[in-house]
């Protein structure tokens, strides 16, 4: 049997847990950052150019290394200059070392320092699905959580509510404001290395998925935490992992996989929708879903009627960068209708990713390949995900 390879954003939280056991009792980290003062913005030029860069920066969520920060760290400078948000991980893919989370006290201090550095509300995001995909877990001092597969198998609203409240309690404890959950993919193929084999789906039945996702979203909303239903338009049949390869679901995807998204959107329960990097030629013969106007604009916004923020899967994933390159992938994602671009900084670690992406997008606007109106539209949508201060 092939060894299951976890996506970059879904590293097994249990890996190396023994080595981490001694770390979970570390003392709280003291804040080393002063309160934020808005800076002149990244780059130089006219006030209009600086304002544009800050708008674009607000559309980016970026991962970084370190369990504490100082005012001179690149991630803190980016936050001071208007970076939209950060994404937290327990493990670093390249080094297999602890990344941002060692203990509840430590990560709470880290999040506090980052928020204090921001000139406005900062999105602090995480993948906390439950089960194997849980950044906050026993190896770093948080309670164990059941998987979506376990919850869906029980399919009990009271049990789901209790489970969801437990997930959310860990998030609010440390200051997370956006959770990339729930997974609403149907469990089309239980052997799928993206979903089924990792117990990430509630069920193969839309009714079970929608019922349990509804309870989970309500629990998050009650605590003021935003959610992102994923992975549009459905990857429950995906045989591979888009972080490391191009994945084509053309022959296995079924229209019923849209049903959870359709029903949750209709019920007003989609704070955001996360778009997958899979290629699905039933919907677009050329581009992966996350870069496709046919999928994002025509299907999601047109047919399904969704008008809220669309979030990308990792913009450094091989599934899009190998064919299109990093710069063109950013261009196509924004052009397709994606609003919030996530750079996990996992498989590839790029401390200059914010500056480079700002340069790319400002160049696209200056050249007329991307309109200022499109940037403003994305900013307005992403602002709905920001916490209230």
Automatic annotation (TrEMBL):
InterPro entries: GH, Glyco_hydro_3_N, Glyco_hydro_3_N_sf, NagZ_Beta-hexosaminidase. It catalyses: Hydrolysis of terminal non-reducing N-acetyl-D-hexosamine residues in N-acetyl-beta-D-hexosaminides. SUPFAM superfamilies: (Trans)glycosidases. The keyword Hydrolase applies. PROSITE patterns: PROKAR_LIPOPROTEIN. GO terms for molecular function: beta-N-acetylhexosaminidase activity. It is an enzyme of class 3 (hydrolase). This is beta-N-acetylhexosaminidase. It comes from Micromonospora krabiensis. The lineage of its organism: Bacteria, Bacillati, Actinomycetota, Actinomycetes, Micromonosporales.
